């Protein structure tokens, strides 16, 4: 928290200095252009060469100040973006504010675990982790959260996250660059469509003409202005009209190259800055170096290539300028040269664009996980094993504040599957979610909320929050049976970690009890890890059939001074106390 407070103070001071520079440069620009105008006016009056020379120097100075001013304003915007980043982090740690994208578009009701564990949406795990600024980064983070990695990949991710976690300034710089010109799914899609288009070909004669015509134009204008050759002037005028006609014949091809998104030039510039930061940074971990090497797949750096494309699109858009377009094309067939350069760029680099942007996305999702690690220094990276051992000590839910969180320990070394009982509101569902979320975090290379963890990564399946589907005419019961069938089918092929919460709620008590017990027997038969929560204490008798594989665990509640007291501590055995009738009486329902 202190690092964010210090950053805010330092960056605000820097922003103040840049704001002063901004105002001074604005004033200097105004004075310089006024001086240039005055000097040219005096030259017209006196024809003194000194006034002309001074006017030209003032004009050059003006354009230099314009470039400097643009750079200062860009730096000012970057610093303000960094201030916002630090304020968001500080606000999150102090008040729990989540000023980050929630990833609603990634909700999948049929996903094995992400919907049941609330991975996306308001106050979700995704929103807590998300520190991405690009479409690819956001998608990469969502994809990462929805798939378990291999042990080798987990170890590589842990190494990468450990490396960049303390590099707060670099990580924030990367995020600030991404936020300067936020991209959209539309702009990303437009860029990918452009890259995939068949490249525009210019006819041979047209290609030759685009080089010869500007040379002839310069010669003709030189003869006219320096030697007063009127014939050269008339020929130059005719050639200018011919140039405009030739360019006009290619206007469909030129406009066909324009991407519909108006900010594509700035967006590509942003991508180039991000790529440059990744290219020039020094990394030690295998995963980060491999990602960095992907940006060296051509004869020059990816950042330079993307920056060139940004410049080309900027030049291409001049065709829509009613003043610059006719002048540039009349003199130099300007847009034919831009069209040819774009065609060459597409031929050389178009197949690499998606890979380059994927690298940005990978760094952003790793940045998000590193930020999560930095904000939770008490979390631990689990040891990854191949001996089917799963153990958590002092396990908690990462989305519950440390002040309110109650931790529990659990070991699946001997008994691989537990039956969890407890009264209403005693913590059963929260504990299942806690297990599920931390198993996934362990499976993607992130730290977990525990004092110690040893995990054998495996697919995770959760059935907790199914609902009726009116659009599919599907009942709650049938939806749940389908989910259970999907889990069973997967268990036939691969050992998995399964969490079930009060299954078969859409049927009568006897059917529910018998069905639940049969499901548990199937879990034993298919060697599943995990657990099931139930209110039916008779279900716990199944443990007698497989005492070495199944265990009973419970959460208890006490009534103290006519009030329910929950300690949310996991215990061995079957629940002994009930609370439903007591709660209904307290609320006047019965």
CATH class of the largest domain: Alpha Beta
Biggest sheet architecture: 6 strands, mixed
Which structural class do the helices and strands define?
Answer: alpha/beta
Tell me the number of helical segments per DSSP (H or I, 4 or more residues long).
Answer: 20
Summarize model confidence as the mean pLDDT: 90
Nearest-angstrom radius of gyration? 33 Å
Proportion in helices: 55-70%
CATH superfamily of the largest domain: P-loop containing nucleotide triphosphate hydrolases
Unreliable residue runs: 468-473
Strand % is 5-15%
The global form is: elongated
The largest beta-sheet arranges its strands as 6-7-8-4-9-12
* CATH-derived topology of the largest domain: Rossmann fold
**CATH architectural name of the largest domain:** 3-Layer(aba) Sandwich
- Per DSSP E runs of 2 or more residues, the count of β-strands stands at 12
Search tags:
590 residues; alpha/beta; Rossmann fold; 3 domains; six-stranded mixed sheet; four-stranded mixed sheet; 20 helices; 12 strands
Task: Write structural notes for this entry.
This protein has 3 domains: 1-96; 185-202 and 250-363, no CATH class; 383-586, Rossmann fold (3-Layer(aba) Sandwich). It has a 6-stranded mixed sheet with strand order 6-7-8-4-9-12, with helices on both faces. A 4-stranded mixed sheet has the order 1-5-2-3. Strands 10-11 form a two-stranded antiparallel sheet. It is elongated and about 110 Å long. With 590 residues, it is an alpha/beta fold. The protein has helices at 2-46, 49-95, 125-129, 135-145, 151-164, 168-180, 185-196, 204-227, 230-249, 251-257, 264-280, 286-293, 302-316, 324-332, 334-349, 353-375, 428-443, 476-493, 509-525, 580-586; strands at residues 383-384, 391-395, 408-411, 417-422, 452-455, 460-463, 497-501, 529-533, 550-555, 557-560, 563-566, 571-572. α2 (49-95) crosses α6 (168-180) and α6 (168-180) crosses α16.
């Amino acid at each position: 928290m202190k690092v964010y407070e210090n950053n805010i103070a330092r960056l605000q001071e820097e922003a103040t200095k840049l704001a002063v520079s901004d105002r001074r440069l604005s004033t200097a620009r105004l004075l310089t252009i006024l001086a240039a105008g005055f000097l040219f006016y005096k030259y017209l009056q006196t024809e003194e060469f000194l006034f002309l020379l001074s006017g030209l120097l003032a004009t050059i100075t003006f354009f230099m100040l314009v470039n400097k001013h643009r750079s200062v304003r860009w730096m000012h915007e970057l610093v303000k973006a960094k201030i916002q980043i630090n304020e968001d982090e500080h606000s999150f740690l102090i008040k729990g504010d989540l000023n980050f994208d929630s990833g609603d578009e990634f909700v999948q009701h049929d996903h094995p675990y992400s919907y049941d564990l609330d991975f996306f949406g308001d106050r979700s795990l995704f929103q807590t982790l998300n520190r991405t600024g690009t479409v690819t980064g956001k998608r990469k983070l969502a994809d990462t959260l929805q798939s378990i990695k291999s042990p080798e990949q987990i170890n590589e991710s842990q190494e990468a996250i450990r490396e960049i976690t303390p590099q707060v300034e670099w990580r924030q710089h990367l995020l600030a660059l991404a936020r300067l010109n936020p991209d959209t799914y539309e702009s990303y899609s437009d860029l990918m469509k452009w890259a995939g288009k068949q490249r525009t070909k210019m006819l041979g004669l047209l290609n030759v003409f685009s080089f010869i015509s500007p040379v002839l134009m310069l010669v003709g204008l030189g003869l006219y202005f320096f030697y007063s050759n009127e014939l050269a002037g008339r020929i130059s005028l005719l050639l200018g009209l011919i140039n405009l006609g030739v360019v006009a014949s290619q206007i469909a091809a030129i406009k066909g190259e324009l991407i519909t998104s108006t900010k594509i030039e700035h967006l590509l510039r942003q991508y180039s800055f991000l790529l440059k930061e990744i290219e020039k940074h020094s990394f030690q971990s295998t995963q980060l170096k491999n990602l960095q090497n992907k940006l060296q797949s051509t004869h020059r750096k990816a950042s330079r290539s993307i920056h060139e494309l940004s410049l080309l699109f900027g030049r291409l858009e001049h065709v829509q300028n009613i003043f610059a377009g006719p002048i540039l094309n009349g003199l130099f067939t300007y847009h034919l040269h831009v069209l040819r350069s774009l065609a060459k760029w597409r031929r050389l680099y178009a197949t690499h664009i998606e890979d380059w942007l994927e690298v940005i996305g990978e760094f952003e999702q790793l940045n998000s996980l590193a930020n999560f690690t930095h904000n939770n220094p008490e979390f631990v990276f689990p040891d990854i094993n191949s001996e089917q051992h799963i153990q958590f000590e002092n396990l908690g839910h990462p989305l519950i504040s440390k002040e309110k969180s109650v931790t529990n320990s659990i070991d699946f070394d001997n008994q691989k599957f537990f039956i969890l009982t407890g009264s209403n509101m005693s913590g059963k569902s929260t504990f299942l979610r806690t297990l599920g979320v931390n198993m996934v975090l362990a499976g993607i290379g992130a730290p977990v909320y525990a004092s110690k963890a040893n995990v054998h990564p495996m697919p995770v399946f959760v059935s907790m929050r199914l609902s009726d589907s009116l659009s599919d005419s599907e009942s709650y019961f049938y939806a749940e049976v389908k989910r259970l069938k999907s889990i069973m089918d997967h268990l036939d092929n691969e050992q998995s970690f399964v969490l079930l919460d009060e299954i078969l709620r859409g049927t009568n008590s006897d059917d529910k009890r018998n069905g639940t017990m049969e499901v548990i027997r199937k879990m034993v038969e298919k060697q599943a890890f995990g657990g099931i929560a139930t209110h039916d204490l008779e279900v716990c008798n199944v443990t007698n059939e497989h005492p070495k594989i199944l265990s009973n665990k419970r959460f208890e509640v006490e009534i103290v001074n006519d009030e329910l007291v929950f300690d949310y501590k996991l215990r061995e055995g079957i629940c002994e106390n009930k609370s439903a009738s007591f709660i209904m009486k307290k609320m006047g329902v019965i």
